[in-house]
Design brief:
- By secondary structure, the protein is α/β, with parallel strands linked by helices.
- The protein folds into three domains: 192 residues, Rossmann fold (3-Layer(aba) Sandwich), CATH 3.40.50.720; 89 residues, N-(1-d-carboxylethyl)-l-norvaline Dehydrogenase, domain 2, CATH 1.10.1040.10; 135 residues, NAD(P)-binding Rossmann-like Domain (Rossmann fold).
- The chain has a six-stranded parallel beta sheet, sandwiched between helices. The protein has a six-stranded parallel beta sheet with strand order 11-10-9-12-13-14.
- It is globular, with a radius of gyration of 23 Å.
- The termini are far apart.
- Bound molecules: nicotinamide-adenine-dinucleotide (NAD).
- The site of nicotinamide-adenine-dinucleotide has 27 residues, from helix 1 and helix 5.
- This is UDP-glucose 6-dehydrogenase.
- GO terms for molecular function: NAD binding; UDP-glucose 6-dehydrogenase activity.
- It catalyses: UDP-alpha-D-glucose + 2 NAD(+) + H2O = UDP-alpha-D-glucuronate + 2 NADH + 3 H(+).
Length: 433
């Protein structure tokens, strides 16, 4: 099939690359000339494991193309997948301005009878809204399908190729079947729904997962208060099939480009329909306070933070991505800076993006060694594999005092105990002092 993808971000690029890998002819369109230039040279503009090799392979095979021209990208496409951003606007609602522009771009160059697929995360009713925008701008016939995306950054290729399910929402059976056919090579279970249910499935899924995270974080805080151990508690809970083991890792809160904005957008939708979804308000407020946890723990330990030097390990909102959107490291950096502390941070891939968001209120190191040198404390903020394998004897030697606040419970306790000098403050389980 001939497919056009609008937007070469985490979702659009992963989708385009994977659809070309399974045999389709894909052209990816972006308004960002720099991104397209890099993609044409076979360089991925985002860090995503496995993406670049598939990009090179399918570009070389002539199945994957990149352009900034909507006309070139759309004129032959029988399926048009819209994967542009839907960030949060000031009132918490989803900002649909990129989507509206994309709809206008589509209407200008649409091939008659093309199927327009909305993959971006959009509030209930948006597919109908986009349909009306396109219909107002062109007389050509077209069909609409809602096909929300569930991939996770850091495992986007695997998640696309081996998704748990594909949701296809449409009021047009023929269009829905064609999109099912497009995905057939992936051999993934497909669920057909109406458009509004498809739109809701995406928000309900993300809001549920975010709530699961806030729930386990509150249990972790309670574990600390009563002397229980969150690792054992989560393990015991997760063995219950009704609960499941995923998303029970206590830590310093969720971040990223999806959970924070999607929970707020769903709350906004609820408000518009007069539904008081107070559970979501709590999910958000627990998460906001959890992001401050390491700073609170540091304050408890040191009494005052002015002049203290903190090594921050990890900047991205989670490992295996360079994405800084809503990363807890942003809040931690701000609080430490306000308290007069010095921060020197290291991340394996997110430093350049972090500089754009956090700026020069903190310093950036090129290695763990550089970050921890003479530090008063180490804050483990993102659970990169590299940090789990830290040589703690070396850490003890390099730091001014070996005090570790582990926001992701990623260091093995037996290794900590083997280094008798380390003071260790994890989340939801007893400290080692
Ligand atoms: P992104 O910001 O990384 O990428 C969006 C891209 O769209 C940018 O490159 C931008 O230049 C391009 N763009 C904007 N307007 C355009 C237009 N008119 N024509 C062509 N290109 C245009 O966004 P993302 O993280 O890939 O997310 C895209 C959507 O998917 C959002 O709705 C998001 O909520 C949803 N989603 C994201 C994830 C994730 O993990 N990132 C997962 C599931 C769903």
């Amino acid at each position: 099939m001939r497919i056009a993808v609008l937007g070469t971000g985490y979702v659009g690029l992963s989708t385009g690359v994977c659809l070309s890998e399974v045999g389709h002819h894909v052209i990816c369109i972006d308004v960002d000339q720099q991104k397209i230039n890099r993609l044409r040279q076979g360089i991925s503009p985002i860090y995503e494991p496995g993406l670049e090799s598939l990009l090179l392979k399918n570009t070389a095979a002539g199945k994957l193309h990149f352009t900034t021209s909507h006309q070139e990208g759309l004129e032959k496409a029988e399926i048009i997948i819209i994967a542009v951003g839907t960030p949060q606007s000031n009132d918490g609602a989803a900002d649909l301005s990129y989507l509206v522009q994309a709809a206008k771009d589509v209407s200008a160059h649409l091939k008659p009878d093309a199927i327009v697929v909305i993959k971006s995360t959009v509030p209930v009713g948006t597919n109908d809204y986009v349909r009306s925008i396109i219909a107002n701008h062109t007389k050509k016939p077209f069909k609409m399908v809602s096909n929300p995306e569930f991939l996770r950054q850091g495992s986007a290729i695997k998640d696309t190729m081996k998704a748990d399910r594909i949701i296809i929402g449409s009021e047009d059976n023929e269009a829905a079947l064609k999109i099912q056919e497009m995905y057939r090579p992936l051999n993934v279970p497909v669920l057909m729904t109406n458009v509004k249910s498809a739109e809701m499935i995406k928000y309900a899924s993300n809001a549920f997962l975010a709530t699961k995270i806030s729930f386990i974080n509150e249990i972790a805080n309670l574990c600390e208060a009563v002397g229980a151990n969150i690792i054992d508690v989560a393990n015991g809970m997760g063995k219950d099939k009704r609960i499941g083991e995923a998303f029970l890792q206590a830590g310093i809160g969720y971040g990223g480009s999806c959970f924070p904005k999607d929970v707020k957008a769903l709350l906004h939708t609820a408000g518009q329909y007069g539904v008081d979804f107070s559970l979501l308000k709590e999910t958000i407020s627990i998460n906001e306070s959890q992001r401050q946890l390491l700073v609170k723990k540091a304050l408890e330990r040191f009494q005052q933070l002015k002049g203290k030097k903190f090594a921050m390990l990890g900047l991205s909102f989670k490992p295996d991505t360079d994405d800084m959107r809503e990363a807890p490291s942003i809040v931690i950096s701000r609080l430490l800076h306000q308290a007069g502390a010095e921060v020197i941070a290291y991340d394996p891939v997110a430093t350049e993006n972090a500089k754009k968001v956090i700026g020069n209120t903190i310093q950036y190191a090129e290695s763990v060694e550089e970050a921890i040198k003479n530090a008063d404390a180490l804050l483990l903020v993102t659970e990169w594999e590299e940090f789990k394998k830290l040589d703690l004897a070396e850490v003890t030697k390099q730091m001014k005092q070996p005090i570790i606040f582990d926001g992701r419970n990623s260091l093995a306790e037996d290794k900590i105990r083997a280094c008798s000098k380390i003071e260790y403050y994890p989340v939801g389980k007893p400290s080692i002092v």
